[in-house]
């Protein structure tokens, strides 16, 4: 079963709005990563946040991590049509060398 | 720096055949992992190779195998193909062991089994 579970499964917003996606996981982690995938293509790494970090920024992206709640969120500010993609969280777990991906959130940004 | 490359990009095979996919990691990366992506199962971990040794394996049958060469390039082989093997196969490389560092993905190989 998947460790990371993204919420919502799908999100449709207007260009310029903010998009927030959430990820929950079950076991202890070393890090959590967010990836973007355009239709049928490879995954593009967005941000890696380590278990001792609470927040990280990269351009229009803001990621938070709450290890007590075993959850993370990805905020995309001022979204653009080009942000339309699937977004995945992936956990790097302690006690084993694994990265487990969630099912992803499909984001659709309308121009 | 060149990214992760995968060849071929598209493959069409028939049931019972075998297939070999290739992945060239980013220069200096020692770990190569393989994933299978299907609409129904999402991204599923196949295996990780690090320093020419398989270090981790996902829950896939023995028909799925791989290897890594001394230059870190990796190949994945699927024997006796089944219809359910139709998927996007992604490889990813990282400097260190999977789960400890950022993974960089290739564009994938789209395999269709008829």
Explained architecture:
The complex is a heterodimer of chains A (111) and B (114). Chain A has 111 residues and is mostly beta strands. In chain A, 0% of the residues lie in helices and 59% in strands. In chain A, strands 2, 4, 5, 9, 10 and 11 form a six-stranded mixed beta sheet that branches. Chain A has a five-stranded antiparallel beta sheet with strand order 1-3-8-7-6, with no helix packed on it. In chain A, a hairpin with a 4-residue loop joins strand 7 and strand 8 (71-76). The radius of gyration of chain A is 13 Å and the shape is globular. The termini of chain A are far apart. The N and C termini of chain B lie far apart (37 Å). In chain B, the strands form two sheets. In chain B, strands 2, 4, 5, 6, 9, 10 and 11 form a seven-stranded mixed beta sheet that branches. A four-stranded antiparallel beta sheet of chain B has the order 1-3-8-7, with no helix packed on it. By secondary structure, chain B is mainly β. Chain B has strands at 5-7, 10-13, 19-24, 31-38, 42-50, 53-57, 64-68, 74-78, 87-94, 104-105, 109-113. Classes of the chains: A mainly beta (111), B mainly beta (114). Chains A and B meet through strand 4, strand 5, strand 9 and strand 10 of A and strand 5, strand 9 and strand 10 of B.
